[in-house]
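Follow-up to my post from last week.
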Amino acid sequence: MRRFQLLDASMAFDQLRPVMYRGELVALAGRHRFHLLAPWLDDRPDSDPDLHFVALLCLYHRQVLRGQLPHSADPDVAERWARLMLELPGQSPAR
Amino acid sequence: MADDYKPQQGDEADLFALFNDQLMRRVQRAVNCTPEIAEDACSIAWAQFLRYQPDRSREWRAWMFKTAQREAWALARARRETRSLTKEDVRGWVVTEPLDPHDPFRERDELEAAVEVLAQLPPRLRQIAFLRATGHQYRDISEMTGDSLTRVSSLVRRANDHIRDALLELHATEVTTHPRAACLHELEASPPDWLLQEIGRPPRSHGGRQGYAKRLLDWRRAALSIEDYRKLTGFDSQVRALGLRPRDEAPAQAFDAAVHAVEIVNRQRARCQELGR
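User reply:
Got it. Predicted complex:
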């Protein structure tokens, strides 16, 4: 029994969603972590607006995976959500 | 976006959706690591995929697996190296062996040898050998190449034969500095009459036919056994390889070993003659 539990635990991968930005795969988002993939993001400073935007996209996908936002098949929804977040008071892409 | 990166081809998200689960499972199974390490390693591999944009018509899956596997090893090793010391560890000041037992220089040599061997294979077999070397099962190879399982099995066997032959040749040319290997090299390059009389010339490859490697190995064993016997007993006939069976134990054992090895070679030669090889 214990062995089966261990096997189950070893196979427990966090689901990852591909994060798209301007039609390109730029990151992977999970429930707990995300991974930046696009090579052009490597050298960007923390204040970079594109980097901020991609981070918001990752947050969107995390919320979807956690069930806090509805899943949408429309690939533009994530970007619209991120833009909306940036337009909220107190938010700035270069914050 | 910077211009010095290869542009994406538009299929990256689809390829991720198709392949990532399989990749993570394979990496975790191959490295025996945690799901987090497998996830990190595969993410790094995908980042490399975006950066280098490998040719989709070639073995990019195998390349991805190898990249992720290498990253998983590195991450797992780093995790072990940064493990906190307990009070007991500090109290005892136990000095342990280095965590990585691999010799990087030997590994590099082996890698170079493997690459050299792979390069000698025909492209079809090279593809199969590469997929097998990167841990893919027959069923996976069948899916990737579109060949039936039987065909894959046949190709793997042929690739193994080629690799064995190439390794033997590589080994024979590399280790000539060792006295025993130098002796064997000389016997192979210009067999003396007594050796030709007893076991003939070294077998030659006939386009990678199965069994060549074994025949060559048996020939070499016989040649060295005879040489051992001659050195031990001082027997120096130019036309006969072996004399009478000595009475003393050690020379008698060397004689028996040589006779046994010669019999194996001669049986194989007779069989090959029957088959017209």
